[in-house]
Design goal:
The complex is a heterodimer.
Chain A: E1 3-6, E2 11-18, H1 23-30, E3 37-47, H2 49-64, E4 70-73, H3 77-85, E5 93-94
Parallel strand pairs in A: 2-3, 3-4, 4-5
Antiparallel strand pairs in A: 1-2
Helix pairs in contact in A: 1-2
Chain B: E1 2-6, H1 13-26, H2 31-51, E2 59-66, E3 69-77, H3 104-112, E4 115-121, E5 124-132
Helix pairs in contact in B: 1-2, 2-3
Classes of the chains: A alpha/beta, B alpha+beta.
Amino acid sequence: MFDAKILDDKTVQLFGRFDAAQVEKARVVFDQVKGPVEVDFTGLEYISSAGLGILLMTQRRLKEGGRGGLRLTNMNKHIRDVFQYAGFDQVFEIV
Amino acid sequence: MTEKKFKKDFSSLESIDAFIRSFAADHSLDDEMVFTLNFVIEEIFTNMVKYQPGSGKDMSVGLSREDDLLRIRLVDYGVEYFDPTSKPPVDVNKPLEERRPGGLGVHLVKMYVDDFRYEFTDDNSIITLTKKLKD
């Protein structure tokens, strides 16, 4: 079960499985992000390229608007590997 | 090979995860391999859903383990020829402004598996992936 919650203006929390079936649900949440935020992956078990696509398009929108970017935190090892394979460690701040 | 059919729709992904976890439990596969199987199967499955709507027949997903080799087989029935293995590689070093999400999934599948084959017979698209297990 996937969920994405905006806690405040500074944090988005992700939970569960971020797969292709969750793209529209996630898009509604990330479209509300207007400035630099932390995306907390603590509760996220899994992500596929569909999830990567949502994060990528959000990052582009923020950067192109000069509005900072996403700071991705607390990824599990498997998710971190996906980001590295995709070269996304070069376009996101991952801590 | 352990096989199961799934509705050709994104909503099947949770059921596919359950199928993978059941197979993993029966074949002593760890969490990393559960993640890898979910990832590569989702990428191929969703590609078939998006680009090969075809007949709308259920698709089959099969898994087998022979010693240190895992085989993954997806069959899409009653469709036209569509070979994802021939897609050009994605440049993962491009700057942000030149990045596009398209094509990334298949590119990543190639990084996770040791062999990625496409066959087309009797209007069926068949993808076979092979993954060597670590010691």
